[in-house]
TrEMBL record:
Domain of life: Eukaryota
Organism listed in the record: Neurospora hispaniola
Pfam families in the cross-refs: Amino_oxidase
Listed name of the protein: FAD/NAD(P)-binding domain-containing protein
Alphabetized InterPro entries for the sequence: Amino_oxidase, FAD/NAD-bd_sf
GO molecular function terms attached to this record: oxidoreductase activity
Domain Amine oxidase, first and last residues per copy: 16-276
Amino acid sequence: MADINVDVLVIGAGPTGLGAAKRLNHINGPSWLIVDANDKAGGLASTDVTPEGFLYDVGGHVIFSHYKYFDDCLDEALPKADDWYTHQRISYVRYKGLWVPYPFQNNISMLPDEDKVKCVEGMIDAALEHRVANTKPKDFDEWILRNCGEGVANIFMRPYNYKVWAVPTTRMQCEWLGERVAAPNVKLVTRNVILNKTAGNWGPNATFRFPARDGTGGIWIAVSNTLPEKNKRYGKHGEVTKVDAEKKIVTLGDGTTVKYGKLINTMAVDHLVEKMGNQELVSLSKGLYYSSTHVIGVGIRGERPERIGDKCWLYFPEDNCPFYRATIFSNYSPYNQPEAGAKLPTLYKADGSKASSDEAKEGPYWSIMLEVSQSTVKPVDEENLLKDCIQGLINTEMIKPEDEIVSTYHRKFDHGYPTPSLEREGVLKELLPKLQDMDIWSRGRFGSWRYEVGNQDHSFMLGVEAVDNIVTGAVELTLNYPDFVNGRQNTERRLAQSFVFGVKEDQSIPARSALPN
């Protein structure tokens, strides 16, 4: 006999697990429990706070949405107008000392003349070849060449994507691209080059929301707080140590056993199969690749410089800095850093020299969050990474050598990006159905390993749709048809909808339903 018996067990309280739990609580049908090894909800969408009071997310997270149900749940958790800030994306690529508006491939009008010629010639050649091509690109590199041409490929797309993914573009497939990478319009680009104009506002995150307080992690703590306490086990007594798929029993860190009917797993699927001890699936999961992410935070004393202005996030394809992206995190919310009156000592100046005084002084303060990828193909000098990143900020003129640094942050996330490798689909099309045959729905950024549906809204809805699939057999559109959900407003589910299971119409109290086998 297990200590706890539930119809549905949810492993992980990140966006996907909370989406599943939210839906289970909403429909009020099967019994359920959500467990997580961390003391607070959020998973890979959490927020850390430094001792000095600077906030840093687990990488660059902002809120934009393809789903009304996701919006409803966030608005229920953080309902007040002053819970949020709304921003227009102001994003650039740093190249040869210039700030080129994002997306780079649509704004080559901003480049030096020699580079403009390379890029336009490459695009024309690519367009001519593309017209007669009768096969799909075999990998991401070929997609880049066909859509952007050799010039843009060599100047930006290849070096930047290597810095992000930590693998060459020749080792990545291109099924994932969709709305993630802008394919340039050759006529528009040529017109803008001649007229010296820029193009902007591409992509779904041109406008985005960010929470006023507690960073992105605060959103998911607030969503978790809308769920009943009796259905949550966080911390050591929520840590999964073993999954017995045959007996449908999960063992937790404190020895508690949970018997389940169906399991929604949101931990990394390679970790799941190890906890299952299933060697066939462990071997299969070895075909999935990922990169690690280092998040670096730098808190600086002084007014935000005019050269930084209201920029949101910035891309760095060149080798004069280790980071691929910088987010001006202090621009998202005034609560992301200490208030100006807080007194902090200077740790050191940006060039590494000692401060003139150890005395704590008032601000104001601003902050930058950096992301660096790592893999077996792209190693990183972890011990010196913070120092190298600060030097990179000087090299790219983000900060000056004499700037006073009052706070630093460095955290490595082993599973950072699920790589859309050439082998990925072959593995997933075998692995996920095998798990589902065992009544295990593995979903989420690393649970189902599909980066193209790895944003917060997608991740949340992967959990919601897994529940609907379990309870009613509904098709999981986000998992199986990413381009479909990304190309429309998904309004079918709303939090205001009510559900009644196993009762006649004149009965007011819903009864628990038995899950379908």
